[in-house]
Amino acid sequence: MGDRAISLKDVYTARRRLAGRVIETPLKQSAWLSKIAGVPVFTKLENLQVTGSFKFRGALNSLFAAKEAGIGRVFTASAGNHGLGVAEAARLTGLDATVCIPTSAAAVKKERLRAFNVAVIEHGDDCEITESFARRLAAEKKGHYISPYNNEDVMAGQGTVALEMLESMPDLTTLVVAVGGGGLVGGIGVAAKTINPSIRIVGAVAANSPVMKECVQAGRVMPVFQDKTIADGIAGNVEADSITFPVVREVVDEWLEVDEQDIADTIFEFLDNEGMVIEGAAAVAVAALSRRLFDTRPAEKVGVVVCGGNVSHDVWHEICFSHLQIAR
């Protein structure tokens, strides 16, 4: 396959850095999803990861890589899972970290970040404005900027999810992954397809924010119109020079979109059937199976990445309202 930003070797390097520091989360068969899909379905429970999301893997790998390179100060922009991952990674590595967040970030997210020993700066009312500010600040302060997705070490760290899945169950034939900026599906895709070139990667996006899907179909990174989504962890436009774009274009075999009602309902169905609260981004991947949005094949074994379990109060209220309206 063509040139990539990362290789399987990079993913194995990431795993060595992360060993003993990340949780090797369970790969658990779901009787509920298996019955709906008509084939065995296994959930990779990254909602049980440190800080409640797969994002900790990429954040920790990137900070260890920075430390190995003699970098002592890092900057990032995130009001969500990546920011929490960087904050916890800074505690483990001893690096000085600054997390820039939009002024519109939920109060509970601000409180969680400030509980760590990191600098938190509020700037801009939009994630893209905040990211630009964080990049400038890193340059001015002679620090190292770590994108939530547009970073080789972040992507390699996320790829360790695939290593664990395929070592636990080598005969998985399809992996279903929620897609935002492409760091998770890119890392998983490179690792999985190098190990097993015939494995199928299904990329799932929120219908209200189908950014990477539309960029791939257009053949270029471009601004994509978005509406509000409860899958806020995978919302937002992609940077024009993102290293994830060519990787995602290469590794994702099939795309699908999940609408807001199906995302909300799937969160409640996962709670009912699996006993865990998951966030909207995770529900996007799960809904691909719970709503039978793609065709399964005979003798197939499907792995679905449950990417996180962090739900803020305001999003939870919105989900409950949406679910109750339909129930009535």
Structure description:
The protein is built from 13 helices and 10 strands. It is an alpha/beta fold and 328 residues long. It folds into 2 domains: 222 residues, Rossmann fold, CATH 3.40.50; 91 residues, Rossmann fold (3-Layer(aba) Sandwich). The strands form 2 sheets. The protein has a 6-stranded mixed β-sheet with strand order 1-2-10-7-8-9, sandwiched between helices. A 4-stranded parallel β-sheet has the order 5-4-3-6, sandwiched between helices. Helix 8 links the parallel strand 7 and strand 8. Helix 1 packs across helix 3 and helix 3 packs across helix 4. It is globular. 54% of the residues are buried. The model has no long low-confidence stretch (mean pLDDT 94).
Structural class: alpha/beta
Helix content: 40-55%
Quickly name the level 1 CATH class of the largest domain: Alpha Beta
Q: In percent, how much strand structure appears in the residues? A: 5-15%
Query: Alpha-carbon distance between the termini?
Result: 51 Å
Query: How would you state the average pLDDT, rounded?
Result: 94
**CATH topology of the largest domain, what is it called?**
Rossmann fold
Series of secondary-structure elements, N-terminal to C-terminal: HEHEHEHEHEHEHEHEHHEHHEH
Ranges with pLDDT <50 over ≥5 residues?
none
Global outline: globular
Total individual domains: 2
Work out the helix count.
13
Query: What is the second-level CATH architecture of the largest domain?
Result: 3-Layer(aba) Sandwich
Major β-sheet strand ordering: 1-2-10-7-8-9
The largest sheet is: 6 strands, mixed
Tell me the radius of gyration: 18 Å
